[in-house]
Amino acid sequence: KGKCPEDGWDESTIELFLHELAIMDSNNFLGNCGVGEREGRVVSGLVARRHYRLIHGIGRSGDISAVQPKAAGSSLLNKLTNSVVLDVIRLAGVRTVSSCFVVPMATGMSLTLCFLTLRHRRPKAKYIIWPRIDQKSCFKSMITAGFEPVVIENVLEGDELRTNLEAVEAKIKDLGAENILCVHSTTSCFAPRVPDRLEELAVICANYDIPHIVNNAYGVQSSKCMHLIQQGARVGRIDAFVQSLDKNFMVPVGGAIIAGFNESFIQEISKMYPGRASASPSLDVLITLLTLGTSGYKKLLKERKEMFLYLSSELKKLAENHNERLLDTPHNPISLAMSLKNLDETNDAAVTQLGSMLFTRQVSGARVVPCGSVQTVNNYTFKGFMSHANDYPCAYLNAASAIGIKKQDVDVFLKRLDKCLKTFKKEAKQEKSINEISNANAVTEQLED
């Protein structure tokens, strides 16, 4: 039926299944005689085994989703993977999604493919409206496609950075709807940035007849992000949404899913991909989903939510112990931020130093964001880069509860962060004592004189 099984399969069953697919490819026929330039020849047995002898890749030269006559097994693998992934996207909350396909490129290049496809529909358009998010690949995806990003600064509401809808609409009127390729919005992001107001943006796009592409990089794991996409498509316009395979399904980096609500448009994107493609991302995600089954994936989603609440409560306690606070970002369901105001006031370099200390103590993924850093990306200069705003009120530290995180990860992170912050406190006290002694000595010398 092309659906993800409810209960996962054991490894032997999966391997048997993959071997059955592989023997349907011509390079594995016993009597095959290949006289073409691409015959699935692999000189290393180790490489052949690594790919389960599925060597031909997926698609044909004109369409990544097309069937290859001499690679029936690889073609079937491709069709099944897309079908199973579509089933899981519906399970995760976007129930009316009509089509999707796995593409062997990470999220940034997959977004570029979407923009290039829209170019044929809107040949006069040169601008992309982009509510600011300080992440390089999604910004460069627009530059690589040859378009001019129009950066919309976020609005500070409490601690949260939210979409400036008035600025979006004003810019559409200023540039002219026909000159805008699309609105490029974001769901999953680092706090204090929160998901864009997708429903309102979708309505604006529908009203002005402008396409809408959503960067849903690690949003499949969040029911809130998926709900926003579902609602946006229901009340307005969302043409495609793109998500990473490694961030949502715990497979190696190098694949993404392009999905949407209009099957013909998604097929149009797949036909834009030039040439055949590697089957590795499709193979990895199919193996993973067959191993988990829907019950296993639902369990991971549930555990992630529980860990988010645990991380939130424990990080809040730690922050208060160090006279800091957990920033109030209720609209961000994955990422959290803790202020580093006292650290920043003590020493300008201390915030960056904290990041280095955590990394050398084997804490990966945590980000420290100082105030006022400036970065130039493709000739565009961003003030306050990484904080998603020109002047965010304080420096802060990010931590995320992403799929696959365990309680042990949270506990070890908090313990090491606490130790690092205590080290800074101790050094600050020592420096204060030294300064006091120096001042006292100076006064004594003056009195003696």
From TrEMBL:
Enzyme class of the recorded protein, top EC level: transferase
A single GO molecular function term of this UniProt record: tRNA binding
InterPro entries: PyrdxlP-dep_Trfase, PyrdxlP-dep_Trfase_major, Sec-tRNA_Se_transferase, SepSecS/SepCysS
Compartments where found: Cytoplasm
Residue positions, PTM N6-(pyridoxal phosphate)lysine: K247
May act as a substrate filter by repelling compounds with a negatively charged alpha-carboxylate, annotated site positions: E37
Entry EC no(s): 2.9.1.2
Cofactor names: pyridoxal 5'-phosphate
GO CC aspect terms: cytoplasm
Protein family (similarity comment): Belongs to the SepSecS family.
Name assigned to this protein: O-phosphoseryl-tRNA(Sec) selenium transferase
